[in-house]
Design goal:
The chain is α/β, with parallel strands linked by helices and 372 residues long. The chain folds into two domains: 205 residues, 3-Layer(aba) Sandwich (Rossmann fold); 157 residues, Rossmann fold (3-Layer(aba) Sandwich). It is built from 13 helices and 13 strands. The chain has a seven-stranded parallel sheet with strand order 3-2-1-4-5-6-7, sandwiched between helices.
Length: 372
């Protein structure tokens, strides 16, 4: 079989994108030459040397405010659209230079848009390129995925997800397998990192004393004030704004965000968790059969979609954290910490099986079929 050349394009904005790319990269490299592309790195965030992409673009990014994504910064991203268009043309030229067989994109805007520019101006002799998105956002292309009825951003969000990052095939991920209603979309159960699976296999998942927190949209001083009167249990909060541990209260410690052994140990031994309704961490908590409370972040519509799906599974959802809702948190942790989401019944290794190899092989097959 001919050797393939693949462009692995990654959205650099968040943990979920990073973990999915890491999970698939090794299998992709066994099948093809892999060239990495990334965009959207948030201001102030540094990538480790082993995660630096071969080609990096500005793309579209975001930053947090006091209690969620900064809406002013999000609005300013509109000013980046001309630069995004320019970068897509630059990427189209890179495609002509590299002549890859396929693009694997984790909701990465420059590569998907650049391929459309390449196709608009392609010559018949140029190699066809197969594009596939492999990300949680692809699941939202299905009309059967839950949407919050109270969210006025549903219409523009659905339009954005359908039109802004197009591909030939979509491998979506969600908390369960929803129907898709289309032939170019498959919805898979979550990709669970090897380290998380090993916690279970080594019997290191226990119900400890601390509450695990991951609430990056809330500033440290805001969370400290909120938790000051709530000292019945210790809290360990992972926060992106730190480089070393910080303990402002006897029962609250903040730790730098990052996927490492200390984080895995705290995750496996937590009593319960209070986290944003991104995708990766809630999926890991479901896999570990941990009780948790979801708090969707402001100005991230996909988190409201996730919140609705989690709510339908039985996960309690709070719109925001303040002194009033913290009393609800205390009550839920005291009274409901043994009430797990409905999907957590049975062996989670069977509910959320490892699908990485099969997804990669299907992608390689599609690339070869286009090339033949």
């Amino acid at each position: 079989m001919p050797e393939l050349k693949i462009i692995l394009a990654s959205n650099l904005t968040g943990k979920g994108h990073e973990q999915r790319v890491r999970a698939f990269k090794e299998s992709l490299r066994q099948e093809a030459e892999v060239i990495t592309v990334g965009s959207g790195l948030p201001e102030g965030k540094l990538l480790p040397p082993d995660q630096q992409p071969d080609h990096e673009y500005t793309g579209i990014s975001w930053k947090y405010g006091k209690s969620g994504v900064d809406p002013a910064h999000a609005a300013l991203q509109l000013l980046k659209l001309p630069n995004l268009r320019k970068e897509r043309f630059e990427f189209a030229e890179l495609l002509r230079e590299l002549q890859p067989d396929g693009i694997w994109s984790d909701f990465e805007f420059v590569a998907c848009g650049g391929l459309q520019k390449y196709r608009e101006n392609t010559k018949s002799k140029e190699r066809p390129i197969f594009a596939q998105r492999v990300d949680h956002h692809s699941a939202f292309l299905s009309p059967f995925v839950p949407r919050p009825p109270w969210n006025i951003t549903n219409v523009p969000t659905d339009w954005f997800l359908r039109n802004f990052c197009k591909a030939d095939f979509y491998e979506g991920f969600h908390f369960k397998r929803y129907r898709t209603g289309r032939n170019d979309l498959r919805i898979n159960t979550p990709i669970i990192q090897r380290g998380i699976r090993e916690l279970v296999s080594r019997h290191e998942v226990k119900k400890g004393e601390h509450i695990l927190g991951y609430l990056p949209g809330y500033e440290i001083n805001v969370l400290t004030d909120l938790l000051k009167p709530h000292s019945s249990r210790p809290w360990i909060i992972y926060h992106q704004g730190l480089k070393e541990n910080y303990q402002p209260l006897s029962h609250v410690i903040f730790k730098p965000a990052g996927y490492r052994d200390e984080y895995l140990a705290d995750l496996g031994r937590c009593y319960a968790a209070v986290v944003t309704t991104g995708f990766q961490l809630p999926a890991e908590l479901l896999y570990l059969k941990k009780f948790f409370i979801g708090v969707p972040q402001r100005a991230q519509p996909e988190q409201s979609y996730n919140a609705q799906a989690l709510k339908e599974l039985g996960v309690p959802i709070l719109r925001r954290l303040n002194q009033r809702t913290m009393k609800i948190v205390d009550s839920l942790l005291a009274d409901s910490s043994d009430q797990l989401a409905g999907i957590c019944e049975g062996d989670m290794e069977k509910v959320y099986p490892d699908q990485t190899r099969g997804i990669v092989q299907d992608y390689i097959r599609r690339c070869r079929e286009l090339r033949a």
